[in-house]
């Protein structure tokens, strides 16, 4: 009985608290993956769908050129960081006319 209680606490409290903050997946991608693998393989496919998706996301996050797929599979509120993005700062709402801008672009 004690083993059952400890396993239930570990599976429902400890593991989600530890892993839930680290690995976030897109809810729609998880749903579509479970439906696809469930359709292909039935119940065993539905059970292995999320682990396959997690493995694919980890690979996509670590392989150059697949970062877009990894960002898509991540949660929606995960900030996307791109080192090549240049954003101009806004100095004023008025247009000073033709000529060079007085505000320097900043790199994120």
UniProtKB/TrEMBL annotation:
Main subcellular location: membrane
Keywords, comma-separated and alphabetical: Membrane, Transmembrane, Transmembrane helix
Region (Disordered) location: 76-108
Transmembrane segments annotated in the record for this chain: 28-56
Keyword Transmembrane: yes
Transmembrane helix among keywords: yes
CC per GO annotation: membrane
Subcellular location, record wording: Membrane
Pfam families given in the database record: AI-2E_transport
Topology class, membrane: Multi-pass membrane protein
Residue spans of biased composition, Polar residues class: 79-90
Entry's family note: Belongs to the autoinducer-2 exporter (AI-2E) (TC 2.A.86) family.
Name this protein carries in UniProt: AI-2E family transporter
């Amino acid at each position: 009985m004690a083993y059952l209680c400890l396993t239930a606490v570990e599976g429902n409290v400890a593991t989600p608290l530890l892993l839930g903050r680290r690995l976030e997946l897109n809810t729609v991608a998880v749903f579509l993956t479970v439906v696809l693998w469930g359709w292909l393989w039935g119940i065993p496919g539905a059970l292995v769908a999320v682990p396959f998706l997690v493995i694919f996301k980890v690979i996509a996050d670590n392989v150059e050129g697949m970062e877009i797929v990894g960002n898509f599979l991540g949660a929606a509120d995960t900030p996307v960081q791109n080192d090549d993005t240049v954003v101009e700062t806004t100095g004023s709402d008025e247009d000073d006319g033709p000529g060079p801008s007085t505000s320097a672009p900043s790199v994120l």
